[in-house]
Structures are given as C-alpha cells and as structure tokens.
C-alpha cells in the first residue's frame, strides 16, 4: 500500500513535530482551565474542573518526555535513562488517575447518585492497584522489548528498553485500561449530564462545547484508553499503536492529538458559562444596589417626614388636652387614645425602617448577617448586644440560605424590639463541621409557652409561624423557649457547607 507507506514515512520523519503538538494540545487544555477563576463560582461544574486542568498539564509533560528522554539518553548513564523511562511511566499513570478523578468528581457534583461521593478515593486506589498489577504482570511476562519505532534509536535507549521494556509496555496498557478508559467514560457521562443541567441558563456555545467535549472524550476513550503499546498478551498484542500505523499509516499520537484538540476547543467554549455567571452576578449586584438605595431612601423619608409629622401631631394633641377644662373627661380620654395610637404607629414605622434596612444586606457570612441586623436594632433602641462566635469552621451559605437566615434573625430581633422590653440580647453563633447553630436570648418579659402555642395555632403569632416556615426551608431545627419574666431563648440548628478556619 504505497499511500499508507508514504503517509507513515511523512509522520515518522516529522515525529518531533507530532509529539510536540500532542503534548502542547493537552498542556494548553490544562492551562486554559487552570487560568479560569473558579473559586467564587457557585456552579457545580466549577469544582471538578481543576482535576481536568491537572490531567492536561501532567499528561502534556508526559508526552514531551518522548522527546526529552531519547535526546538525553546519549549523555546519561544507562541507569539514569532507565530511571527516566520508569518515571515517565509513573507520570503517565498519575495523569490517567487525574482524569479518572475528574470523571468521578464531575459526576458527584452534577448528578445525585448517593454512592458517587464515596468513590472519591477510587482513583487513588486504582492508581495503587495499577502499580501493583504492573509489577506483577511484568514479572510474569519476563523480558520484553516493545516495538516503539525508530524514533527511540538515538543513544543507548534501545538497551534501556531491553531492560525495562516489559514494565513500560505492561504499565502503559494496564494504565489505559484501568485508569484512562473509565476516566474518559465517566467524563463523557458527566459532561452530557452537565449540558442537561445548564441547558436552561447557558447560551448555545456552552452547550455545544460540553457536548462536543463529551464526544471527543468518547473517541479518546478508544484511542487513549484501549489502544496502547504492543504487549505480549491479548488484546494488546493484536490492537496497539503499531497495528494502527500499519493499517492507516498514521501514528496513534496524531489521532489522540486530534481528539485532545477537540476537547481543548470544546472546553474553552464551555468555560464561557463562568463568564455568563459573572455577568449575571454583576447584573444582580447592580439590581440589589439600586434596590438597597431605594429602600434607604424610603426609610429616610419615613424617618425624616412621616415620623416627625406624627410626633408634631402628638404634641398638638397634648397641648389641646392640656387646654381642656378639668370636667371634659370624655374629650381628654379620646385625645389620650389618639396619642396612644399615634405612638403605636410611630413604633410600627420605626420597625418598618428597621426591616427595610435589614433587607438590603447582601453578605452571606452568618456573623456579618447577625452583626448587621443587630446594628439596626441598637440604632433604634438602647438594647445592649453581646455577640459570641465560636467553632473552628467557616460556614459557606448559599444565597437562599443567607436570605432565609437573615429573615429569621430579622424576625427574632423585630419581636424583641416590639414585645420583649429587653435591655440585653445575647447571641451565640457556633459553626462546627456541616452544622451552624444560632442562639438568641433576651432578658425581657418572656411569655407563657401554652399561650404562645395557642396564638400560633390561631394564626395570631404570625412572626413565629414565619420563622418556623423558614426553618423548614433551611432543613433546620427551630426551638423557642420562654417563661414569663425570664426572657426568651431562640435556637436554630441548620446543616451547611463548611470549611476549616485557617490556623
């Protein structure tokens, strides 16, 4: 087949270019993902991507080893060349283990299969199993020198292959079967699931990128997961890189490079999803800023306008009452009633101002949420606040969790402001692994638990019912304990994502 021979000779002559491009494709893939800022992303796809970046960079360095080691073999002792070949084999296995880790992490983040989070140690276990299997099978095979092509003829590398050829061939084949093949298959599954998960929010290029990456990984599963170096056992003795060259004239590295190039381009397209997330976050921040300004303006107008007018009306009524004859008891009583109502209206407006300002808070940090709402409480009353924060963990709340927690704290403080007549509020916030506990105590008048339960069942204790509903949304446990004259204690325990505080 003259055409096949000509193609094979062309690629063999330019093998340096082929291997350079092969390593560069995967290195660029890893670098493109690594340079993407993913730390603040709330998308599930962000968490597994660093493993893909690590795979691309490490695998790129491994492929460049096919250029570096033959050149250096002419200057290094035989033992050093053998050590470099073994090191390259270990790096190859590590890169495939990183690919498997990416697949496991991607499925664990995107899908809801409960077993997947428990499989996160599987790639490390599979890597160790691969090392053991390579040693065992190599010992059984004995001396074997793989057909690696004329490109390894430089220096004394063929002599090195005669000594370590068996573990190199066996390790290559087993690494592809045990690590690269399942890793690529899981990546296909995870990328398709990711495209389904974001189809309602992502632009068409992102969906195209995710699906194209899945298809390219499917090809890589065959080219990089099934076809390896020739080895003295089937199917590697029948289907390997040498048989591909004999049949097509094209080295398997060229085909893998094409699959890797599609993966790199497709993943770069899919990374636009995080740009979209940033754009949405900026637009939402702008909207919230405008909303906060409007709330602040309304609160300021209420405080400076309506409350002052109510206060002035109360003074006029007080003067009118003082001017009445002592015998005018009925008008004086009516004036007193109106003044009392005006005082209640003023208190309600102050509470509304407090609610408006509290609702404009944008932080997701539990301590900042409590402090900010508490500052509003202290701004309108003489209540003292004692805030205690403990635990060696830091809670990472979602936007929904932060909003519901903010509303619970606001409602609790509003109740204290309206009903408790308290002089001291003690707040304890403690974060442990996967749990956040909030306790709010006051030294106010308290209430009878039975009467409060009746009021809640009748619908009159709306604030407490709202807090219980929000606790349900948070999958939290809410407890309220109180006795007349002994204040009230509210306890909220909720599951949260956490990370350990730096020492």
Polypeptide structure, described:
The chain has 503 residues and is of the alpha+beta class. The protein contains 15 helices and 7 strands. Helix 1 crosses helix 8, helix 2 runs parallel beside helix 9 and helix 13 (399-420) runs antiparallel to helix 15 (462-473). The longest helix is centred in the middle third of the chain and has 52 residues, at 272-323. The two termini are 68 Å apart.
Which whole number gives the mean pLDDT? Answer: 79
Structural class assignment = alpha+beta
Strand order across the biggest sheet? 1-3-4-6-5
Strand and helix order? HHHHHHHHHHHHEEHEEHHEEE
Distance between the termini: 68 Å
Biggest beta-sheet profile: 5 strands, mixed
Unreliable segments of 5+ consecutive residues: 150-155
Binned strand content: 5-15%
Tell me the helix content. Answer: 55-70%
Count of alpha/pi helices: 15
- What is the overall silhouette? elongated
**What's the β-strand tally?**
7
Query: In angstroms, what is the radius of gyration?
Result: 35 Å
Protein topology:
Layout: H1 2-13, H2 15-34, H3 49-73, H4 78-110, H5 122-141, H6 157-197, H7 204-223, H8 241-248, H9 252-270, H10 272-323, H11 329-359, H12 366-380, E1 384-390, E2 393-396, H13 399-420, E3 424-432, E4 435-442, H14 449-458, H15 462-473, E5 477-482, E6 488-495, E7 497-500
Parallel strand pairs: 1-3
Antiparallel strand pairs: 2-7, 3-4, 4-6, 5-6
Helix pairs in contact: 1-8, 2-3, 2-9, 3-4, 4-5, 4-6, 5-6, 6-7, 7-9, 10-11, 11-12, 11-13, 12-13, 13-15
């Amino acid at each position: 087949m003259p055409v096949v021979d000509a193609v094979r000779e062309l690629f063999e002559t330019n093998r340096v270019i082929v291997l350079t491009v092969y390593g560069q494709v995967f290195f660029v893939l890893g670098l493109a993902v690594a340079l993407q800022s993913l730390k603040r992303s709330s998308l599930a796809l962000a968490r597994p991507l660093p493993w893909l970046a690590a795979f691309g960079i490490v695998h790129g360095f491994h492929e460049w080893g096919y250029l570096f080691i033959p050149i250096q073999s002419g200057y290094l002792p035989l033992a050093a060349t053998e050590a470099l070949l073994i090191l390259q084999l270990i790096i190859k296995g590590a890169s495939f283990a990183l690919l498997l880790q990416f697949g496991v992490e991607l499925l664990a983040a995107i899908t809801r299969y409960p077993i997947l989070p428990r499989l996160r140690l599987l790639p490390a276990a599979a890597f160790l199993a691969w090392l053991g299997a390579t040693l065992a099978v190599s010992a059984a095979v004995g001396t074997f020198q793989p057909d690696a092509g004329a490109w390894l003829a430089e220096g004394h590398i063929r002599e090195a292959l005669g000594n370590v050829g068996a573990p190199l061939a066996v390790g290559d084949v087993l690494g592809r079967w045990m690590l690269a093949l399942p890793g690529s298959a899981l990546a296909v599954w995870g990328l398709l699931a990711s495209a389904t998960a974001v189809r309602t929010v992502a632009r068409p290029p992102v969906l195209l990128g995710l699906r194209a990456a899945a298809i390219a990984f499917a090809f890589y599963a065959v080219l990089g997961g099934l076809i390896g170096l020739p080895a003295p056992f089937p199917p590697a003795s029948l289907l390997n890189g040498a048989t591909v060259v004999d049949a097509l004239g094209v080295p398997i590295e060229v085909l893998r490079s094409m699959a890797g190039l599609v993966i790199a381009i497709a993943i770069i397209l899919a990374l636009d999803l995080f740009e979209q997330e940033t754009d949405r976050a900026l637009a939402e921040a702008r909207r919230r800023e405008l909303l906060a300004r409007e709330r602040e303006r309304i609160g300021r107008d209420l405080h400076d306008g309506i409350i002052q007018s109510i206060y002035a009306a109360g003074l006029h009524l007080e003067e009118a009452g003082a001017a009445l004859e002592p015998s005018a008891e009925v008008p004086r009583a009516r004036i007193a009633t109106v003044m009392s109502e005006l005082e209640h209206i003023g208190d309600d407006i102050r509470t509304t101002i407090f609610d408006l300002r509290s609702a404009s808070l944008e932080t997701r940090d539990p301590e900042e949420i409590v402090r900010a709402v508490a500052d509003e409480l202290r701004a309108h009353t003489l209540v003292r606040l004692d805030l205690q924060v403990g635990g060696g963990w830091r809670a990472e709340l979602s936007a929904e969790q932060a909003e519901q927690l903010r509303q619970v704290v606001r409602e609790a403080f509003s109740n204290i402001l309206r009903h408790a007549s308290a002089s001291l509020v003690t707040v304890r916030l403690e974060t442990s692994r996967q749990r956040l506990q909030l306790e709010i105590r006051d030294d106010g008048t308290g209430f009878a638990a039975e009467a409060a339960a009746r009021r809640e069942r009748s619908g009159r204790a709306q604030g407490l019912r709202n807090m219980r509903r929000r606790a349900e949304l948070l999958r939290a446990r809410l407890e309220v304990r109180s006795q007349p004259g002994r204040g009230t204690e509210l306890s909220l325990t909720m599951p949260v994502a956490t990370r350990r505080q730096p020492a």
